[in-house]
Amino acid sequence: MNILVVRTDKLGDFITALPAIYVLKKHNPHNRIIACVAPLNKELALACGFIDEVIVDDEKSGVWELTKKLKKANADVSITLFSNTRVAFAQFAAGISKRIAPATKIAQIFYTHRVRQRRSEVAMAEFEYNLELTKTLFPDIDLGYTKPLVVFGDAKDVYMEFCKEYKVTKEVVAFHVGFGGSSDANWNLDEYGILIREVLKQGRYQLVLTFGPDEVSLCKEMQEKLKGEDILFYISKSGIVHFAKLISSFKLFVSTSTGTYHLASLVGCATMTFFADTLFASSKRWKGVGDENLQQHFMIPQLPHRGDKSFLSAKNQRDAVFADVLKKLSQIKALKEE
Fold first, then answer.
1. Domain 155-337: which topology?
2. d(CA 296, CA 265)
3. How far is it, in rounded angstroms, from Cα 31 to Cα 24?
4. What spatial distance separates the first Cα and last Cα of the chain, rounded to whole Å?
5. 209-219 pLDDT, tens digit each
6. CA nearest to 13, candidates 38, 46, 43, 31
7. Residues 254, 256, 260, 266, CA torsion sign
8. What is the gyration radius of the CA atoms in the chain, in angstroms?
9. Nearest partner of 50 among 129, 131, 151, 154, judged by Cα
């Protein structure tokens, strides 16, 4: 059976689709799995051994161009994990006979099987909702998957090359201080400086600050704030797969809830992650696809306007969370044992 799986949004969103894609392949290895993804996720999709073909949906091209691509794939069925009118119509126009998707938005009129999930209630995590959709196609499907889900055979070589190039001799604790354009909460850079120095004073880890290729100015700002400290500032310029291989060997990856966090969890790195204190942006919805024992989640209360009567209470809550994070970072050695 040729199965098209559609998830055309951001990096973290695509990673939440990978367990569903994996179990579809595991259910019957003869199934041909075709993933329709956004351009930024093409490289990672191609690196997943349980994906047989990748279709890139460049939204700059017209809907008929996407329709041609989908029709050429000759899919027997499609499962759309996150829909919009464009991808829904393209599947309809491509003549895919069985089209499964959540029953949401006007786009649902183009699907043959509309599944009511009510994701806004956050009864489970995003990747778990995605897994549940596969039951519409195969009611007896086993939703279990290996963790870490993605393992690269040459990951250790990439890490060793990194250590050699940058003279790294200790276990790496990484901080990714940027928002990445998708997170709803984060510490400010001065607060990150306090957290980073808490790890530095232990003297047992190599501190690495990671940045995307478009975060050069942020990198320079952090270099100025942390001048004189024994820190490696690393701008990832070799692609998402190379970065995934590298961080899979890190001791800990500290960041807000964004794509790089999901990538770290995907490849088995322990994570410490900061979420907005709202249900829709919470760890309940956006926990990683990796081993939950390797995940540390913290909810950051949002501060109202300083003149608001609830400001002091919210600030006290925020300060308490920060103190808890600081305490956990002083006990990194035990993180993987909890």
1. Rossmann fold (3.40.50)
2. 11
3. 8
4. 42
5. 999 999 999 99
6. 38
7. positive
8. 21
9. 151
Task: Give which of 4, 32, 11, 1 is closest to 90, Cα–Cα.
Answer: 4
Structure tokens at 218: 């942020």
Cβ burial of 20 (10 Å; 0-12, 13-18, 19+) is buried
At the top level of CATH, the class of 2-137 is alpha beta
Rounded CA gap, 140 and 240, in Å?
34
Give the number of residues written for the chain.
338
Q: What are phi and psi of 150, to 5 degrees?
A: -120, 120
Provide the 8-state DSSP code for 238.
S
**CA dist list (Å): 330 to 77, 196, 323:** 50, 10, 11
d(CA 48, CA 267): 11
Cα separation, 7 vs 21, whole angstroms: 10
- Which residue has 């393992």 as its token pair? 151
Start-end ranges of CATH 3.40.50.2000 in the chain? 2-137, 155-337
- Pull the structure tokens for residue 152: 């690269």
Query: pLDDT digits over 166-188, tens only?
Result: 999 999 999 999 975 555 689 99
Helix-, strand-, coil-residue percentages of the chain, each rounded to 5: 45, 20, 40
pLDDT single digits (tens) 223-277: 999 999 999 999 999 999 999 999 999 999 999 999 999 999 999 999 999 999 9
**Strand positions, DSSP E, the chain:** 2-7, 32-37, 53-56, 77-80, 98-102, 113-115, 171-176, 205-211, 231-235, 252-256, 271-276, 295-300
